[in-house]
Amino acid sequence: MKDTHQNELLRKKLYLSDRIAKFVVTSIAVISFVSIALIFLFVLREAFPIFGYTPEVESYSDQELEMESYGEEHIGIEKDEQKASVNNNQVQQSSSEEEKLKLQSIWENIFSTTWDPVSNNPRYGIIPLVVGSLKVTLIAIIIAAPIAILAALFTSTFAPKWAKEILKPAIEILAGFPSVVIGFFALVILASFLQNVFGYQYRLNAFVGGVALSLAVIPIIYTVTEDALSAIPRSYIEASYALGAEKWQTALYVVLPAAAPGIFAAVLLGIGRAFGETMIVLMSTGNAPILSASLIDPVRTMSATIGAEMAEVIFGELHYNVLFLLGSILFLFSFTVNAIAEFYVKNKLLRRIGGTK
Amino acid sequence: MKLKKVFLDLSVKSITAFAAFLILLMVVIIMINIIQGGWSHITWEFLTTAPEHGMTKGGIFPAIFGTFLLVVIMSIFGIPIGTISAIYLTEYAKQDSFLYKVIRFSVNTLAGIPAIVFGLFGLGFFVQFVGKGMDNVLYGGEMLRWGQPNILWASLTMALLTLPVVIVSVEEAIRSVPVELREASFALGATKWQTIRKVVLPNSITGILTGGILAVSRGAGEVAPILFTGAAYFLPHLPTSLSDQFMELGYHIYIMSTQSPDVEATRPIQFATTLVLLALTFALNFSAIFLRYRLRTIKSKFS
Description:
Chain A is mostly helical. Chain A contains 14 helices and two strands. Chain B is built from eleven helices and two strands, in the order H-H-E-E-H-H-H-H-H-H-H-H-H. Chain B has a single domain (42-302), classed as MetI-like fold (Orthogonal Bundle). Chains A and B meet through helix 1, helix 2, helix 5, helix 6 and helix 7 of A and helix 1, helix 3, helix 4, helix 5 and helix 6 of B.
């Protein structure tokens, strides 16, 4: 009798601990989602004051004046009060017009082409920074994508075993290089080397940054492409051989097209990485916010601007908010790119490969 | 016709091989340059003393110590959270449930967010929001202790950044535990939680270790998240409390090579610091690869 009672108690205890464990595990797993939400919230929150940015000091003094005049008028004659209220309305109207003007000018300021945040007349034109980011990303992808995709094709189709066993660790080593190490290499060695070869004027420029950035992007594109290539059903390749196709024909006309969604995703992920990468571009692009079409001019990217200026900025100032605006753009860009890569690939690949099974 | 085919065959083969060779070449060039530049400057003294003479002489011990502290605090937070999240994703969640999809998407997204955005988040959330809030509660807003960049906020930011690394690695390990072991445990009357604690986790300890090491290697190499959440240019003392700032290897490289007063004169120090950081991340990565290799051989023994 006592035994069964104890058993019952034990069972209840175990059941309870099981439920508690499940609850705790689930709530900790939610942390990933919560942090994404918090990142979204807080990065945007610090950028938000730009939207309400008005000449706060001036409008404040306007209000004070209003209050005072209203107080005085209250004691006087009613007509005067009416007049005063009309006046007040006018004041309010004119101040809101003024705000509109200033508001316009803050956006005009932000979408202008001059980035000069620490002068007496601070200019926050983000256009050269956006163009800088795009330029460096473009160079990096143009260099990295062909190399990485071809190398992945090599390992999956042509490479003898010994070559694979050298290449795979090499890729892992390249992926393991901290970005500051690549940045340092680009700054000290690569920049001088490229200048000697091409003989351009500025040692640090968009081209150097792009080349250095491609070193960081290659492992990503390679790995994702390799995954996509190896996910192709063996039957595709065998069918191609059975029709008398050569190895290279199979590689070019069967394997590559079948893996196209995966390769597309690989390039997208590479773009996402290149666009947001900070240390490499901060150290190797020269950091001059110049708007130009030339690839051998120094540039400054959005990420590098944040990295270089955030430490010296006064919290709550407009400059601080604009840097968070840049961060929000980076965040939204990488978020979109990742989402496209994930959903696009899942749907396409599943339909292509899963559908034929 | 035949000749054309042979030519095409050869050219496709050689072009792809050349691309692979290029990657190999780049890795070798970077390694050789950094080893060449830094090797002669690495001495016992360099590793164990603090910078002197306005950082133009002396060693990098505070930076090594700071990096060590950063990854330890980061691991204390990151590894348990990552492991438990992985347990949820593999053991508890139904693969088609809404929550599973949300968390899966969050982990993937977290892995793709630029490091600098984590830095901004650390500044906006940990330093400005949590830290300032703590100061207000603890000291009535009169003292600025937590509301400024420090090693705790930097470590937490880094823990968030490395969370996906831990989760993915632990997940792989947990999935490699054979279903039979779980079923045997259930058959003996164990509850789900008992099974996870006594059967699944002990069998995936290598995976947890691998995940931890990979996260540490990543965390030791990232600089962008700590640029404004706690890293300092030079500190006369080692950090003694969680609210202190700290020196870090990667940040040291960045600052020495771009902003120190005499960049050319301190080149050997920069190269040597880079070599130390590189050696550290390599040692970590290789031990992770080794552990993973062992994990796979164990797995193949089971089946």
